[in-house]
């Protein structure tokens, strides 16, 4: 509340008090009524001319002093009335003056209010103008920023993605997979060396817009592994790994195998087991397999044991041609006892092979190794295998079975090597090299050339040497094309005949009829089936 209002309230309270007291003195007529009545009287039309307020006041004072209000008989009464009227007139004048002051102050208040309102409107208009200006400025700034950002994105922004996710096993990483937009770019990192077979992150560097930029390659595995059940036969109370019950596991990352529930192998019978496969991405699948529990008393079988030849000062491979099979264990460790062999001295030494399955059954096999000086013209195996690969590329295809490849090798040797009675028998690699390069040789050359071809074609083969050399020496092979070991001899015979996948009975029958041409120590080699090969 301002000063004007306070003063007005004070005067109003004083006036109200005075009016109350005077109303009592004037017979109950309030001062406001009197003021109203006098204002009406003043406003009525009279014959007298309007006199200024100061003149009227002076006249009232003069009458009050002289007491001239009427005739002589009424002087006393008039004097009293004059005094009373004079007092009332003075009070009314005071009230009128107060009203005039109030009116003046009210008008001043209204003027100040009007000015404040005008000022407020001007300030509001100024604020609106400033706000509009700010909006315009913000719009201009926004347009500028959009323009600047567009120019930056077009000409200066990094076109290479910060992170690129691929599925595990992805082989062909392309530049466009790492770009936000189509720009000229190339790998700096050798992506042929990037390994996507494991879940994780790798840094890939590309060159784009004249600058090397780095992206993070994220390898994830979202596909569950697959596998086939592989039933197993074990001894009672054997320790079995879950991985032994599955085969042909397919997944882009490493897979671990575990049992859903540990199988009970404490007694004979067939036990079901669920194998849980988990890859690096945490994806899982289950394969149900079986375990046949028996009392295992059968020893492993060691195949491929044959006389060996070694060169002084050169490493000796004792296990290259040896295989071990077992009725229960899929893999049996082969131990070699070569403690009697002196690899620095010429001579023939005994070699002992031992294989023990997890049931404790043990098998043994013996052979000999002949140590001698390495020929000066020795041909390294790598050279012979390269020559064999060149031949196989011409006579075999990827979709051929092992038996079909063996047949193609047999026919090639028969058709492309001519028989001569002598050859260098110091090394099978020299004999094979002679067969590939010269196209002629004796039985050793035929045998050695076929050995190189069989080995490179992935056909298991064992060297066989004639045991009775009193009349002549002879060499051939045992091969396994999928249904057991069979005799394989590419050397042509004067009496004719074919020696492709022959059984022991068939080869020994021919040998007996032809001066022991194929006599051999059956104890040194695995027995063949008694029937012909039936595999495709």
From TrEMBL:
Domain annotation Transglutaminase-like: ranges: 391-489
Transmembrane segments annotated in the record for this chain: 133-155
Keywords annotated in UniProt: Coiled coil, Membrane, Transmembrane, Transmembrane helix
Coiled coil: 88-116
Boundaries of every Pesticidal crystal protein Cry22Aa Ig-like domain copy: 322-370
SUPFAM superfamilies, sorted: Cysteine proteinases
Residue ranges, annotated region (Disordered): 1-75
Keyword Transmembrane appears in the UniProt entry: yes
Source superkingdom: Bacteria
Protein name in UniProt: Transglutaminase-like superfamily protein
Organism, as annotated: Candidatus Blautia pullicola
């Amino acid at each position: 509340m301002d000063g004007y209002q306070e003063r007005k309230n004070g005067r109003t309270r004083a006036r109200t008090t005075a009016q109350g007291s005077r109303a009592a003195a004037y017979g109950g007529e309030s001062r406001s009524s009197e003021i109203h009545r006098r204002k009406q009287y003043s406003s009525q039309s009279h014959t007298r001319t309007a006199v200024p307020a100061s003149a009227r006041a002076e006249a009232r004072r003069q009458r009050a002093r002289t007491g001239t209000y009427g005739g002589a008989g009424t002087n006393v009464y008039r004097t009293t009335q004059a005094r009373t009227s004079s007092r009332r007139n003075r009070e009314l004048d005071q009230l009128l003056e107060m009203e005039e002051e109030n009116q003046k102050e009210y008008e001043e208040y209204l003027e100040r209010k009007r000015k404040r309102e005008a000022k407020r409107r001007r300030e509001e208009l100024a604020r609106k103008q400033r706000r509009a200006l700010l909006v315009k400025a913000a719009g201009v700034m926004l347009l500028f920023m959009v323009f600047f950002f567009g120019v930056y994105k077009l000409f200066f922004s990094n076109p290479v993605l910060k992170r690129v996710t691929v599925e595990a096993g992805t082989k062909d990483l392309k530049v466009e997979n790492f770009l936000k937009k189509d720009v000229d770019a190339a790998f700096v990192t050798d992506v042929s060396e990037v390994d996507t077979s494991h879940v994780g992150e790798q840094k890939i560097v590309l060159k784009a817009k004249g600058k090397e930029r780095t992206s993070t390659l994220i390898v994830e595995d979202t596909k569950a592994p697959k596998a086939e059940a592989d039933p197993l036969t074990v001894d009672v109370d054997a320790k079995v790994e879950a991985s032994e019950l599955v085969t042909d596991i397919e997944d882009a990352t490493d897979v671990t195998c575990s049992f859903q529930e540990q199988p009970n192998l404490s007694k004979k019978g067939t036990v079901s087991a669920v194998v849980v496969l988990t890859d690096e991405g945490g994806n899982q699948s289950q394969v149900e397999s079986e375990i046949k529990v028996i009392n295992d008393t059968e020893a492993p079988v060691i195949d491929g044991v044959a006389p060996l030849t070694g060169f002084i000062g050169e490493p000796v491979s004792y296990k290259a041609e040896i295989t071990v099979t077992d009725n229960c264990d899929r893999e049996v460790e082969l131990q070699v006892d070569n403690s009697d062999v002196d690899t620095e001295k010429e001579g023939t030494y005994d070699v002992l092979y031992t294989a023990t399955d997890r049931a404790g059954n043990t098998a043994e096999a013996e052979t000999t190794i002949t140590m001698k000086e390495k020929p000066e013209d020795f041909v390294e195996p790598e050279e012979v295998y390269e020559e064999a690969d060149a031949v196989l590329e011409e006579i075999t295809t990827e979709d051929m079975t092992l038996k079909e490849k063996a047949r193609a090798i047999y026919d090639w040797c028969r058709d492309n090597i001519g028989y001569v009675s002598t050859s260098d028998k110091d090394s099978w690699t020299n004999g094979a090299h002679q067969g590939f390069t010269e196209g002629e040789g004796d039985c050793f050359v035929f045998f050695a050339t076929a050995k190189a071809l069989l080995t490179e074609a992935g056909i298991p083969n064992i060297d066989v040497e004639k045991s009775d050399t009193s009349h002549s020496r002879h060499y051939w092979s045992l091969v396994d094309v999928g249904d057991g070991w069979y005799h394989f001899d590419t050397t042509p015979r004067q009496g004719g005949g074919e020696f492709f996948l022959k059984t022991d009975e068939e080869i020994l029958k021919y040998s007996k009829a032809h001066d022991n041409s194929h006599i051999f120590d059956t104890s040194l080699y695995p027995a063949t089936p008694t029937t012909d090969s039936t595999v495709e």
